[in-house]
Amino acid sequence: MVSRRGLSLSEKHSELHIAETGLDVPAATLRAMYVTMLRIRRFEERVAELVYPLKEIVCPCHLYIGQEAVATGVCSALKKEDWVFSTHRSHGHYIAKGGDIKALMAELYGKETGCSRGRGGSMHLSSPEQGLAGSSAIVAGTIPLAVGAALAFSMQGRDSVSVPFFGDGAAGEGVFYESLNFASLKKLPVVFICENNLYSTHLPISACLGHIQIWEKAEAFNMPGIRVDGNNAVEVFQAARRAVDDARLGKGPTLIECMTYRWRGHVGPHDDIDKGLRSKEELDYWMQRCPVKALEQFLLTHGVLAESEKAKIIKSIDKEIEDSITFAKKSPYPDACSSLNHVFKT
Amino acid sequence: MRQLSYAQAINETLHQMMERDSRVFLIGQGVTSPWYVGTTTTGLIDRFGPERVVDTPVSENGVTGVAVGAALCGMRPVLMHPRMDFMYYAMDQIANHAANWHYMFGGQLSVPLTIWGIINRGGEQAAQHSQALQAMFTHIPGLKVVMPSNPYDAKGLLVASIEDDNPVVYIDDRWLYDHVGEVPEELYSVPIGKGIIRKEGKDVTVAATSYMVYEASKAAEALEKEGVNVEVIDIRSLKPLDENLLFKSVRKTGRLVIADGGWKTCGVGAEIAARVAENDIFKKLKAPVVRVSLPDTPAPASSTLEQAYYRKAEDVVKAIRKVVGG
Fold it and tell me: In angstroms, rounded to a whole number, what is the distance separating the alpha carbons of residues B275 and A125?
């Protein structure tokens, strides 16, 4: 982790010191994070099969496998009343913020019972009651929306925090910088989360940015910037928690760059190695740094999780996922007669 | 009744709406500027402070997104763009985000946002400070578009825009700011989606928008003396469009001229003409429809070119003569 303002933990959190792990993170939080990451992993792997070869899901799915620690670490530092805004790669954020899995699967199947009533598909998930305000497939598109939500929070006297998730590709968009500037100018409660998975669709980030240290852009806007290991859920959580606390206390925004990697290609279940977009060696390197395995190993080592519990957790998650598929398949498609609905709120 | 200028009507509305509803705030580039907004925001900053009168950096897309985000989160922002030309920067947030949000998530959150776009042309300002982009916004599903032509509607449509649960593009024209008319002091709203007959007539319908309603009314008056009885319809709401009012009038007169201050190709006139052509009343037309609009060129600087570029009452007169066969 690199930070302009060092790594010392706030006094507030030192009270939470947990003996087993030596971390200032409660064991229950760590366990919950592990379960969330596994839910995302198992869900996405099943979706990959449903897209291909099963071809049951048609809408384009940008899978989150490999990046689970980011959504999980960040959302574990948030309250339900805090808002997050997501991207085209939105399944992980939806699950981590507490969205209903059945409604998610139904959305991928294009059903009326989906979280967006079949109007959005994979790239447009929302769960306002859980604090996921929505997700946009326009790169960097939700960054200013999150800043606006933070402006509303401050006008309304609420102590909520707003979080836009975005990829490294978003650092090529002007609106990213406009948003950093406005949030800094007004000292708004925003925590900017850049998930740097090293690729902007097919292009390596080094072919996109003149300066690839995205976290350093923060300095130009007079706000703290941090780069963390995005495959280390605990590290992400700790960084997010501190930034969220700062935002809640009125100290303004923070930019956190989480270094991670997506195992599948930009879109769909394939790995894109055959297309010459990246090497098998690179993928192997990152798969050895699996964020789920890393947290699992940490919990096992410190006795927070027992080896015997793993199978039970996975079984329960898999049942939830299979139930969601059954639910999605049984659900009706939107009535074609309703195709003009929801253009305007009436 | 009390008389106010168009600019005063907007100013009074902003004062009253911000006083009445703490969710309403004004945001945009130049909301406290002495030259961007005329007198429409006079006194707001002193009364409501910089927290609710947010003058912004020059970041059209970012600031538009901020307003959309605040609207999603329960506020009712009035987002001002001092010239429509600058709104191209903000098209992503307007068209991809504000307009789509309610539909894209199956009718959950909505965007109660007033996007106030100012047409500010003439004075040799040329191609990037003169544009009237109502047709472009009207094209996009999920946006409502209104254009008040007089002080009464400037107030009533602004109230309706702020009260609407959806994004409304409220377009005014600086050429109207000094026009004076009756404006009630109390708050009232003019319904979005309703046009109005400004002058009844039986020979020809002139459907006009915004400033062109003024020019069309002058044209109607001039032709009255020649015995041509013109009906002037103020479209007011481009989306939703009050087709019934339009069709009823055309059915009566059998002739249609459309006067709009935007470009011709794919413009407001094209849409209105097409609506009539698709309807049975097409058969009642006694002459081809004529459009009065800007030529398909950018706005010029030099005054001689400007004179030739912008449309006035005499252009509407010519168009009417053409359809009545004079």
Answer: 36
Q: State the architecture of A23-328 in CATH terms.
A: 3-Layer(aba) Sandwich (3.40)
The secondary element (H helix, E strand) that includes residue A341 is: none
Q: Measured between CA atoms, how close is A117 to chain B, in angstroms?
A: 5
- Do B130 and B236 fall into the same domain? no
Chain A CB contacts of B61 below 8 Å? 144, 174-175, 178
Domain map (residue ranges) of chain A: 23-328
In a domain, B211, yes or no: yes
User: Does residue B190 sit within a domain?
Assistant: no
- At A11 the pLDDT is 39
Cis-peptide, bond into residue A291, ω within 30° of zero:
no
Q: What is the pLDDT of residues A252-289, one digit of tens each?
A: 999 999 999 999 989 999 988 998 999 999 999 999 99
Whether B129 is catalytic is yes
- Whether B68 has its CB under 8 Å from any CB of chain A: the answer is yes
Given CB atoms, is A108 within the 8 Å cutoff of chain B?
A: no
Do B49 and B120 belong together in one domain?
A: yes
CATH code, domain with B271: 3.40.50.920
The pLDDT tens digits of the residues spanning B85-129 come to: 999 999 999 999 999 999 999 999 999 999 999 999 999 999 999
- The answer to whether residue B95 is domain-embedded is yes
Apex B260 CA angle, B258 and B266, nearest 5 = 85
**pLDDT at position A12:** 45
Residue B188 lies in a domain: no
Total domain count, chain B: 2
Beta strands in B29-186 (DSSP E): 53-55, 76-81, 114-119, 144-146, 168-173, 180-182
Tell me which residue range forms the domain holding B271.
196-324
Q: What is the pLDDT of residue A17?
A: 52
Residues of chain A with pLDDT under 50: 1-15
Is residue B202 domain-shared with residue B168, that is, in the same domain? no
Q: What is the H or E stretch that residue B297 is in? A: none
Q: How far apart are CA B321 and CA B326, in angstroms?
A: 5
pTM over 0.90: yes
